[in-house]
Each structure stands twice: as structure tokens, then as C-alpha cells.
Write a structure and sequence with these properties.
mainly beta, Porin, two-stranded antiparallel ribbon, 1 helix, 12 strands, about 65% strand, elongated
Length: about 230
């Protein structure tokens, strides 16, 4: 009886380190996958003026776009690096609040703007596995994301800016900082992410109405994006 008890105790002791070792083993040292999702884009106006008149209050209309991305991840026991390429479509609207302002006679109430664009996205993110025991994985990650834009895939619509015929050029590269959480079960995963845009996305507003003098308009702003996506790892 004592012999059997000793053997059982020894087996239990030997099993403990093996279990602890497996608890933080990554699902795979290298994984890649495809994900698609929705992205709600909000606008944060930092510098708005029309012919020297500055605006401090505004309202925004957060609108939903979508994206498709391929991502890869290099795993260790607790940490990982991930990157990839994606194509995103974003759209947002904002209106300058003039209710409590004295406006010139030639200026309309509550001028606003809607802008939408397609961008090529390149994230460079680092993260930590909170739970990483196959087939389950819960991770947190953060890092920059680069968005590459072109005038060809950038559209704007201005309201209450008559009689001007306005258009806007975007910056070519938008930098954002991301914070996210990923939940993976076997090969499928869900990502929840927030991206805070850094810097002004407007490279200038132009008027083609031919009115002289040309208007001096500045709509400096950045955006914030909340996204949700579903994907499959391979």
C-alpha cells in the first residue's frame, strides 16, 4: 500500500511542471490569417476657420465603413509581433456649430463636410498573450498603423459653403495608434480595436468657383476608428 502511494505521489509531482509548461505555449510560432470587419469612423476637429473666423464647436456623425486584411503573427510564449496588409473604406461627417456666433452676411449657418476614402493599411503591432492554451487564446496588442491615401480614392462633399465650389486634398500618409484585443478559438478569431489618428489628415482645401478673392478655409482634423472583425488563421 505504501509503495503504491509513493508511486502515485511521484506521478502527480512530475505532472505539475508539464502542465505549467503547456499553459503558456503558443498555438504556433508563426500564424497568418484573413479577416474582414466593420469600422465606425468619428472626426475630431482641431483647427477650423473660414476667412479668419474661427469655430470651436462642432457636431459629428460617426458612420460605418468596412475593411479586408491579411495578417501574420510571430508568437513567443507570452509576446508576439504582428503585421499585414489591408484595404479599408472609411466615411465620416461633421458640422461646424454657428448657433451662438455672429456671422458675416455672406456666410451660411452651420457649414459642414462629408469625406470618404479608401486606404491601404499597414499595421506594426506588438502584443501579449493573456491566455494561450490551445485551442484558446486571449491577447492584447498595440502599435502604429500607416494608411496610404491618394486623391483618386478620396471624395468630399461640402454643405452650406455656397457660393464656393470646394474640394480637398488629403495627406498621402496617415499615422494612427491602435489598441486592441483578440479572442481566438481554434482557427477562428475576433478582433476589437480602436485607432486614434495622429496629425491632420487635410492637405488643403481648394475652390474652383472662380470667385475673387478666393476663400481662406481650414478644416484641420484627425479621426478615430472603432473596428470589429472576424477572421480565420492558417
Amino acid at each position: 500500500m505504501k509503495r503504491h502511494t509513493t508511486i502515485l505521489a511521484a506521478a502527480l509531482l512530475l505532472s505539475v511542471p508539464v502542465k505549467a509548461e503547456k499553459e503558456f505555449e503558443p498555438l504556433s510560432s508563426f500564424t497568418w490569417g484573413i479577416r474582414a470587419g466593420f469600422a465606425a469612423t468619428g472626426t475630431y476637429v482641431s483647427d477650423a476657420s473660414i476667412n479668419g473666423l474661427e469655430f470651436e464647436e462642432y457636431t459629428q456623425d460617426t458612420q460605418v465603413g468596412n475593411f479586408l486584411a491579411v495578417q501574420c503573427r510571430l508568437n513567443s510564449r507570452r509576446l508576439f509581433l504582428q503585421s499585414g496588409l489591408g484595404l479599408g473604406f472609411n466615411r465620416s461627417t461633421f458640422t461646424l456649430n454657428t448657433d451662438d456666433m455672429e456671422l458675416p452676411d455672406d456666410m451660411l449657418q452651420n457649414p459642414g463636410m462629408t469625406y470618404q476614402f479608401k486606404s491601404l493599411m499597414l499595421p506594426i503591432q506588438a502584443g501579449c498573450h493573456i491566455i494561450n492554451q490551445a485551442p484558446y487564446c486571449l491577447s492584447l496588442f498595440t502599435g502604429p498603423r500607416l494608411r496610404f491615401l491618394s486623391d483618386r480614392h478620396y471624395e468630399t462633399s461640402f454643405s452650406n459653403f455656397a457660393p464656393y465650389n470646394l474640394s480637398e486634398s488629403p495627406v498621402n500618409v496617415i499615422i494612427g495608434w491602435t489598441f486592441g484585443m483578440s479572442v481566438q478559438i481554434s482557427r477562428t478569431f475576433l478582433d476589437f480595436e480602436y485607432e486614434a489618428g495622429i496629425g491632420n489628415i487635410s492637405d488643403g482645401i481648394h475652390d474652383s468657383s472662380g470667385i475673387s478673392p478666393s476663400p481662406d478655409i481650414s478644416l484641420g482634423r484627425r479621426f478615430g476608428v472603432i473596428s470589429f472583425s472576424y477572421g480565420i488563421m492558417f
